[in-house]
Each structure stands twice: as C-alpha cells, then as structure tokens.
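Quality-control log, excerpt.
Job 1 of 2 completed; input and output follow.
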Amino acid sequence: MLAGAGMVAGVAGCSGQQAVTGRDAVSLAVSPGGGGAALPPDSPIDVRARTGRIANVTVTTAKGAPVEGDLNADRTQWRSRWSLAPGQAYTVDATAIGKDGKTRTVRSAFTVATVQKKFGVTVDAPFDKETVGVGIPIVMRFDQAVKDRAAVERALEVRSDKPVEGAWHWFNDQEVVFRTKQYWPAHTKASFVAHLSGVNNGKGLYGGKDYAVNFTVGDSHVSTAGEDTHHMVVKINGRKARTIPTSMGRGGEEKYTTTNGVHLAMQKDDPVTMTSEWEGCGPGCAGYYSLTVDKAVKISDSGEYVHSAPWSVGDQGHDNVSHGCINVSPSDAAWFYKLAQRGDVVTVTGTSRPLAPDNGWGFWQMGWSNWVKGSALKRSVSTAPHVDAATLSAQSANGAAQKPRASHN
C-alpha cells in the first residue's frame, strides 16, 4: 500500500515547462512537474524538448544520490532508467538548447510515496568481492512470491569487462538465476546490481532496496570425471594440471549412482559429516551411514562431493564403491580443495543417472534455447562494460548523453 498517493494520476500528468518566446526557441517539459500528492515509486521521470536538443539532465535525491537515465538518439527525450526510491524527495534540473542557440532550464521537485509492504532478496551467488569459477551463476531468492517477473527482471543489470551473452531463468516465483550462454572468460571482472528499490510487484508490494555485488572470474578450472575410466582430469586454463584416480557411486540403486552431467562447485567444507538421513534413512534404518570426511567440495544438492576418502584408496582408479560421491585420495583431495572456487566446472560422464537442472547448480544441464524461454522477457542480454557495483548503483545521470545499455532489459 502506498502512503499519501491520492490523486496520483492527475499529478503524474503535469509537467514543468519553460515558456517559449520564439519560433526557434526550445520548448522543454519535465514530468512529473512537481507539487501535489506523492507519486508511486514506479513513476518514470520524463524530459522532452521540442525545437531543440537536451543538453543536460541531473536528477538527485534529497540525500544527494544521483539518478541514472537514458537519452534518445536525437537528444529530444530523457527518461529515468530505474524505479524511484520510496519516501525520497527528488529534484530534476534539465537544460536544452533551441535552434536559436539559446538555452532553457527547467527545475522540478517532487516526492515519492512511502510503501507499507516490501519484498527482500538473498543473493546466494556470487558473494561480493568473491573470486569464482567460469561456470558461476547469479542466484537470487526472494522472500515473497514475485507476481510481476518482467518488472523485476528489467531491474537486474549485469556488467563485465569482457562481454558475454546471458539470460535470466525463473525456476519458480521466488528464484531467478542468470547464466551465461558459454562459460565466463577467465579473469573477467563483473558487477551485478538489482535495482529493486521501488519496483512494483503488484498489490501494493514494492522492492525495499537495491543489491550490488562485485565479483571476479578467476582461472578456468574444468574437471572431467569418468565413471567408467575411474579418473578425473583437471584442467587449469585449458591445460591438463592433474589426473586423479577416483571411486564413484557403486550403483545398484539410483541413489548410489553419481549424477551424470555438468556440475558446479557450490561450497567447500573441511570437515563435513555425511549421513543417509537426507534420503529419509536415519539411525536404525537398514543402510544407514554417517561419515565425517575432510576436504569436501560440494557439487550437487543430492549429497555429492569430491572429497578425501582414505578408506577407498585401494579402489580408486579401479572400482566404484561410494554412495555417489567422487572419492579421491587425501593428497589429491587437499590439492583439489585448495584449488576449488565456487562455480568451477566438474563434469561427470558415463553414468545412467542424469543431473537435473534444479539439482544444486545443475543449470548447465539445460539447453540454451530452453534456458532463455525461462526468462520473463523471453530474451537474452549482453553485458555492458564493467563498472564497480557501488558506482553503478548510484551512477549520475549528469552525463545525459548516455545511450541505453544493452544489459538493461
């Protein structure tokens, strides 16, 4: 619910406008024109010039934070890029030059309504300032159902210093994931900003704040573990670094078969206790197990890790005896654990149990065309040049000659 939002339609239609004194003088209009009731946060700021061109637009809040916007190709219209912050006061200063060579300036001041209901977000990956692997997704979870997925998706901006194509995919109304079409280039600097403050999710529910993350894609770590070869080949930046003897799922039952396909390193634990309780088999159950293992790199949500297994060293390189994990020797586990970054690729081949796209970060299991279909906007985006997320989230509209960014959905 908006507080103080009465008579909004009438206010939003008003404009601040400079009087025109000659045929070649510029007519400059700003909407909203200021005064009246507080505006909904999703109200756009619109500046238009006739018989001339816009020279500069500056929009700031009462706290001095600048506001981003886009200028069209012929410099006759400027429009704010993101929703406005609830409860904030804004000032717009716009200047244009007429065909007569004279400038005209318009100022508009207005207030955005406060909101009673807000939704929040958790960014599961990547973490701010994290160095990650080439397969890293951006994973966002909402604390309430998203009714207007398109509005939320338009507010999500990804930038990188090496351009990539990617797309957002909604797995349900509370989880959206960004994945690139191909793996990220190694040594890419990237930033992500969710411009969610003031985004209208319907029925009086609005985004409460923006979220900003800077991350770096490190070396390319791509590992391939063959169920039938009993070895895992680890490549660093395309070159073979180590071949590791393994013992994988013993099979017999699907739950003891290692999942086949492209996994990503999700987290590291040293140690971690693994039990059969996740599958409903607690103490006293036939087949119950509880093992504490060292140097464990998680690669799925179905209990699979690459981890140290001194008890199966004799089988590693020859036989599969695990409950589904990739068993390696203590020395190889220590080496792999130290190397691993979240988002590193671990591809398993040769098994009969496919990894589901929603099992952990199995997102690379979905074909690209189907991935894009999961976008609310049904399209991919190209990342714009990288800017530090803190700068990006409050970048000035002072340079009004900015053109729309490809990453702005």
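Job 2 of 2 completed; input and output follow.
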Amino acid sequence: MTSTTEPTEPLSVEQLSGTTLLRFATAGSVDDGKSTLVGRLLHDSKSVLTDQLEAVAHASRSRGQDAPDLALLTDGLRAEREQGITIDVAYRYFATARRRFILADTPGHVQYTRNMVTGASTAELTVILVDARNGVVEQTRRHAAIAALLRVPHVVLAVNKMDLVDYQETVFAAIAEEFTAYASELGVPEITAIPISALAGDNVVDPSANMDWYGGPTFLEHLETVPVTHDLATCHARLPVQYVIRPQTAEHPDYRGYAGQIAAGAFRVGEEITVLPSGRTSKISGIDLLGLPVDVAWTTQSVTVLLEDDIDISRGDLIVPSKDAPATTQDIEATVCHVADAALTIGHRVLLKHGTRTVKAIVKDIPSRLTLDDLSLHPHPGHLVANDIGRVKIRTAEPLPVDAYADSRRTGSFILIDPADGTTLTAGMVGESFASPEPVKTEADDDGWDF
C-alpha cells in the first residue's frame, strides 16, 4: 500500500518555529529493512526532493529493479549501495506540520554497533526494527541494551515485513511480548510496538488496510505525538567552558566572558555559581546570547557568561550553580561500550574527555562484562573487545566534576581516547546501570602509577 496524497507545499519558517524537535535513531539487524523504512517515511511524508527521487529511480534501474529502491535515500556511500547494507550513520533532517525531526539511521551489522552508540547518544527515541519472520535475535537484544544504557526515554519496536507473514496478529503479538519483557528487564521506561511493512507502506505514514486488528498509531503518528519534555526545573544546570572571550579593545577594554553551550538546566543573572574543579565562587553579572544581553538562558543555547569577579577560568572548567554543584573525583566507575578494534585492558593508559576537559587516565579495573543472551555478568574478564559492554574503574590524573549518567546524559558521559593516535576507544556512562556488578574489593594500586 502506498500513499496517494499529492505533494504539499514546503513548510514556512513561521510554521516550523511553532513545532517541537524530536531527535530519534533507528537500529536493526541486517536485512530487517531499516533503510527501506526510513526511505518510505521520507517518501510518504513528502520529505524527498524531486531530484533526489529521480536519482534513486535511476540508481534502482541500473541495478535491474523496476521500482525505486527507497533504501537508497539513506544508503549514500558507494560501498553501502554495492553491498545493500548500511555502514555509516546517516543523518536526515525533515519536518511535518506537527514536528521537526533529526533522524540518525544507524547500521545493523554487529561490527558497526559502535555507530549505533553514536547515533543514539543524543536521541530521545530509538526505533528498533525486527523482521517478523525472524523475531527477536541477538542483535535486537544488543540494540535494546544500548538504548537502555544510553537512557533513551522512548523505544519503538517496529515489527517489519508483516506482509511476508500474511499480516498475522499472533506473530506480531509474540514478538512484541518477548521484546517488551526483555527491554523492561533492562529498565527501558517506555516501549511501543507497531506492526509495519516498510516495502508496502503499511502503518508507516498511512494506516494499513491489511491489519484491521491493530488499533494503535502509525509509525509517523507516534513520532509526531510522543512527548518531548525538557523539564528545566529538575535539570542540574551545567555550562562547560569552551572559550574565554577577552577582546581588550577600546570599545570593550574590560570585557571578560566565558563562552560555551549550556549542557543542562538554566542559568540566570544574579545567580551564585561555582567553577569546577577549582571550587572558586562568584555571581553571574550578565549573560550574552547572540550578542544581546538576556536575563536567563537554558539547555543547548550557546552563551557568554560574565561574572562579578575576575577569577581564573579556562577551557575545560565547568560553571555550575553553587547550590547544586557536583562532587569532584579522580575515581570513576562507569558502564562502557567499547568501540575500538583494539582491546581495552587493565592498566591501559588513556585520555578521558569529559565535556570540554581532557585529562590523562588509567584503566584501574574491569569488574565485569555483560552477556547479552541472559543479561548475566562475566566477572573480571580482564579486557573488553569491540562492541563489548561492561563495567570499568578509571583513575584520572586530575579531579573531574562528573554527574551520574542517570541524572544528566551530557555531564554524566565521557569517552576514552588513545593518546598515541587520537582514536576513540570507549564510550562511558558514569554510575550505576543495569550492568552494575556486585561490589568488587579494591586492590592496591599497581606499580608505575604516576598520579
């Protein structure tokens, strides 16, 4: 079933400014039809330009296909088109009259799980695709585990290729029940299951005439209506300093501002603040936004903060409200997803990047590795290889003001970097998670510690 709606006029700036923004990521096993789903969504929601559609039609004909292969709308790399798989994260921006979207289409192969971590790290919703013929497989569990680790608030289970199982309700119900039980055990807060056929268009944008037993929303309808909340009242306000602005011009002889993007919460003129890790305090005397003074600024806005006192602040420092300052520590325990080909081992010397600060660190212990089949923990594996999920203990050369990831996805996360070549090794989430092991006895520091 395909949409027959005539193309609509592009949305105006005024229309777009009145809509909310949803960041979402897609994930699924190989050949589950994920790229086709994304292509169908873009096509049927009238988010594809004419020249793009013509290019896809031409590429499809050159491959001997009669109809346009909508998967080519997202599989842009030559290797992706040749192999019929998704390799890299593809970002797509589109909008409907109800909402704006940033979509991260991530690969399904196990060896590209690291890309799924990248795409879902900033997502407020993750779509996990399942082939109705195969049901929940190991990679489905892996994607559910990553969504839970990254604290993605909403998960959609899209049971695809329902046309190949004769649109049977029993098949959909069994898959939805199995996945919901598994994801709930991981701590996923909200799970919505939708039966679809991306190839035929069933329940993607338009309701399906072949599944009258399903009374829920279509895929697009759910994306347009799922709550997107940013409760600033409960956020821990955090501003990582990116740059110190000191013009020293005749017009601004004494101007000293601290610029950065607000990672969480809100800041107000007159508020008492603390600069970490130094612990120095002051009060906000002004906030500049796009060159104009404002009284308040909030999450994701890039601002320049002015303080009443001239104190030593540089890139990497964190400005926080004095009444809500996190503790600083050199010992971090976290759940991580290892993304590099080289293994992460105990004693590994790394760089840890948290916000805008990068410090030297060493992997002190790897207490456990998660087994995805049954969510059991393999104790003291000694190392983590690519795509492994586990727990690590890290000692940093300098104190860091870290939040628990459960409290703040921005200031509770970090990456580990290879100091030799700058390769990203591991993505980490501070604090407890479903993968938390039993307490491990702390052993004496190894010889060779230099901090």
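Post-run check on job 2. Residues 1-8, 11-17, 77-87, 435-451 have pLDDT under 50 and may be disordered.
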